[in-house]
Amino acid sequence: MRPVIKSFKIVAVFLGPSLPRRKARCLLQADYYPPAKRGDIYRILASGVRQIVLIDGIFHSAPTIWQREILDAIEEGIQVVGAASMGALRAAELHEYGMIGHGTVFEWYRDGIIEGDDEVALLHGTAEFGFRPLTEPLVNMRYTLQQAVKDRCLEAATAQELLAYARRLHYSRRSYQSLLECPILKAWPKETTGKIRSYFSSRSIDIKKLDAIESLLLCARGFKKPGKRKVRPLVCSMIQGSWWGHERLRLTGFVGSGIRTGGEILRKIYTDGKFVKTMRAVLSQRQFILEWAAQNGISVSSKFVAGFTRRWEHQHQIRNRSEWLRANGLTSHACRKLLRQHALLAWITKKGPAYFGCKKGFVLEWARQNGVTSSPNDSCAGQIAKSDFEMWIVKQGPLYFGVDWNFETALLQELQISGKAAAIVSQLEAE
Prior knowledge:
By secondary structure, this protein is mainly α. It has 2 domains: 1-231, no CATH class; 242-430, no CATH class. Helix content is 52%, strand content 6%. The protein has helices spanning 21-27, 40-44, 67-75, 86-94, 104-110, 138-150, 156-168, 176-180, 183-186, 190-203, 207-221, 242-251, 262-269, 273-295, 302-315, 321-327, 332-351, 362-369, 386-396, 407-417, 420-430, and strands spanning 11-14, 31-33, 51-54, 79-83, 100-102, 253-255, 259-261. The strands form 2 sheets. It has a 5-stranded parallel beta sheet with strand order 2-1-3-4-5, with helices on both faces. The protein has a two-stranded antiparallel ribbon with strand order 6-7. Strand 3 (51-54), helix 3 and strand 4 (79-83) form a beta-alpha-beta unit. Helix 6 (138-150) packs antiparallel against helix 7. The protein is elongated, with a radius of gyration of 28 Å. Residues 227-231 and 233-241 have low confidence and may be disordered.
């Protein structure tokens, strides 16, 4: 029986207290998700989404959304728009790297007028209650105080004092009522404070809501991409290497009738200890061959990769490529990268060590070139047999020799490109 693959819209919106979802749906047809937390973009990266609108995000109750997952989405060719709340904050941080920011709150962050994430933070209800706001975000109070000065309801100096008072309050205690209880206003005549109370009650401005509405309307009309400009390279040692690759894959979404994560797939596959043990040796050996190839500048032609890809598609009977990719948690970019890697391995293996002038196997050649000459278990009488030495190297694994490699990452990627990940998702859904 053919597994059910959930279909997704090409636009995804992360939305919470900034705007009621029922109103948002009238503005933009999209898949709507709760406020974004860490890993949420990775969960939908392979769903076929082409535009992500980040409005609301989790600040303190769960890990916040990573800048890196936004950048990875942009690298995949997905347009990422940020506005109003967490989206405005992340867009201000990443607009030089391709994220698109929109609205007043974004401009304030971008221009350094505001800085802290508490400017947009607030308490709100749960999804059951539509993420109803329970406190007032500082950006709304800031904008309303500015307008009160323009409307000559407040003097500029008084507005600044009130804003400073609001800033000293924890975000969970901010409200217009809290401003009215400010010591400054308590000393004023009741008639004067009454006017301010009336202004806050009838003329306060929800700038986050306005920014959210405008960003959704712009996306509905067809948000134009900015003109080509030089994007600064991202320099951050934390995002390099196998650690980040493992985190990304662990959080990646695999589409069935719902979405399963890479972490769930790993937990399922680890119940088959024999398979995992076999794959540890296979993937370890492959990595040593790839390391040898990289060190010696060995590459494969695009023609060979194209032929390998055609054979791979025929072997896996792929009729609907986009659906197959989604079911296996792959984007087109990630799939091409893995296929090129597998094509290289296939070509090297087919040619054999002698073709490259190697007297030994590829793993032993890697060992020789990297100064690995014997195992700690070698006897003083002489070296162990070549086959035993190679087995020892493979068993130790690349990480033992300082190679940046993660077995679980390699295992998940193998499950993806072999199509076994989709089968595991089906098993999980049947349980």
